[in-house]
Amino acid sequence: MSLLRRHILHFGATTLAGLPLSLRAAPEQPARKLVVVMLRGAVDGLSVVAPYGDARYAASRPQLALKAPGTADDALLQLDSLFGLHPALAPLHRHYEGGQLAFVHASGSPDPTRSHFDAQDYFESGTPGRKSTPDGWMNRLLTALPGEPSPTRAISQGNTPPRIFAGPASVASLGLGPQAAQRRAIDEPRVQGALAKLYEGDAQLAGTYRETVEGRREMSRSMASAEHQSAMARGMGDPTADAGAPSARSFAADARRLGQLIQHDPHTQLAFTAVGGWDTHVNQGAAQGQLANKLGALGQGLAALADGLGDSLRDTVIVVASEFGRTVRQNGTGGTDHGRGNVMWLLGGPVAGRKVYGEWPGLDPAALADGRDLAVVTDFRHVLAPVLQRHLGLSDAGLAAVFPGLPSGGGLGQQLLKA
Asked: Hey, what's the signal peptide range on this chain (predicted)?
């Protein structure tokens, strides 16, 4: 079986290493969009959005606790009387002040695993605790969304197909780095003719191959348009914990490229990308150090994604999440270990920002999960559900298909998005 055939059957995707506007007419109304950014390796949410107002925070982290807002040059950036944003994420603070950025603290998976592999699988399948789910929740979302399908309706950025997009619906794949825009052998007419003849006897594979070619052409036109506008603006004519995700340091350029592609292709509605490097067991650091350096690069990357989206940010929700959080208390090597509760981020025009949502359980020992971790009060699916329904227009039946077995309630409902 050929590599192309195996990849198509495994992923159900339109594979595109290259990249751009569709020949079809653009939709009359701009499509509402969702971008999911996964931080593989379990980022320390208690440093991202630090509960400086909780007395147990500083006591549990003698070397890792960040200083209260206004007390030092490298202190937290104030969000409210309880929480502050890590100073390395300063590029995003303007979005918070502008009402486009919000957080949901003490959120995560109801499954208690501290295995990177299992927790990432549960987040991407959307069925915590169930290993038998064959597909990813964003692939199920593709089939449940209202509107017409398109070869580039969903884009996965990365070098390997993510679990979250596994399934029968076609997904366009955008490679990493500047070479992602280069032409490949599959773009040559003679190669395309040969492959079309090879698959003409199998209707399913032939259809998938046609979507692959059409998707590559559409993305190529969009990327060319984005590059032209960019040039004009410049005045120019644990490795296993990361699951293959690139580091935060290389994220900014790829994030901007993804944002520009989404902006210039009116058919693109869903996108996924991942950033690795968050498994900070040793020498984590506080306002300076390992974690701060990674968060600084991540903040620049998310700001670049927002800038790349341009006017499309008004109709886009960016969700940032990690598989689980880290321990409340620092360990003996100046780091933190695998924990439970974490913080989810929401960025974009539709977000009811400038607020930290969710019930805060506190860091008192009696309130900690297993006596060591921030408790999970808000199921991550209850953060995503209102985005899928109120923002993307998913029906109740569609939500049940995307997140089967989702418990009722959640408490956030109408709060996360603007009316």
From this structure: none
pTM: 0.82
Sign of the dihedral through C-alpha 56, 62, 67, 71: positive
- Alpha carbon distance 15, 216 (integer Å): 8
Strands 33-39 and 49-50, by their bridges, are: unpaired
Using a 10 angstrom Cβ sphere, with 0-12 exposed, 13-18 middle and 19 or more buried, the burial of residue 419 is: exposed
Q: What is d(CA 254, CA 266) in angstroms, rounded to the nearest whole number?
A: 19
The DSSP secondary-structure symbol of 54 reads S
Instruction: Residue 212: name the closest of 392, 354, 8 by CA.
Output: 8
Query: What is the CATH code for 3-402?
Result: 3.40.720
How is residue 370 annotated by DSSP?
T
> Any idea what DSSP says for residue 270?
E
How is residue 353 annotated by DSSP?
-
User: Could you tell me if 324 and 338 are in contact, meaning their C-beta atoms sit under 8 angstroms apart?
Assistant: yes
Measured distance CA(266)–CA(261) in Å, rounded: 9
Specify the pLDDT at position 10. 36
Between the alpha carbon of residue 133 and those of residues 121, 123, 153, 156, 299, the distances in Å are 9, 11, 23, 20, 33
Task: Look up residue 277 and give its two tokens.
Answer: 């490097």
Q: Read off the tokens for 47.
A: 């440093």
Query: Hey, which residues does 270 pair with through a beta bridge?
Result: 34, 154
The confidence band for 215, taking pLDDT boundaries of 50, 70 and 90, is: low
Closest-CA residue to 216 (of 165, 172, 159)? 172
Residue of 124 and 209 predicted with greater confidence: 124
H helices present in 234-289, as ranges = 239-242, 251-264
- Phi/psi of residue 209, nearest 5 degrees: -65, -40
What are the residues whose beta carbons fall under 8 Å from the beta carbon of 229, sequence distance 6 or more? 260, 264
Residue 141 CB contacts under 8 Å (≥ 6 apart), including other chains? 270, 388, 392, 394, 398, 402
Choose among 326, 284, 410: nearest CA to 119: 326
Evaluate the CA torsion angle 224, 260, 174, 180 in order and state its sign: positive
- Sorted by where each begins, the domain ranges of the chain are 3-402
Q: Taking Cα atoms as reference points, which of 297, 331, 356 lies closest to residue 104?
A: 356
* Residue range 292-310, pLDDT digits in tens: 999 999 999 999 999 999 9
- Per-residue pLDDT tens for 341-381? 999 999 999 999 999 999 999 999 999 999 999 999 999 99
Work out whether strand 172-174 and strand 77-78 pair parallel, antiparallel, or are unpaired: unpaired
Helix (H, G, I), strand (E, B) or coil at 3: helix
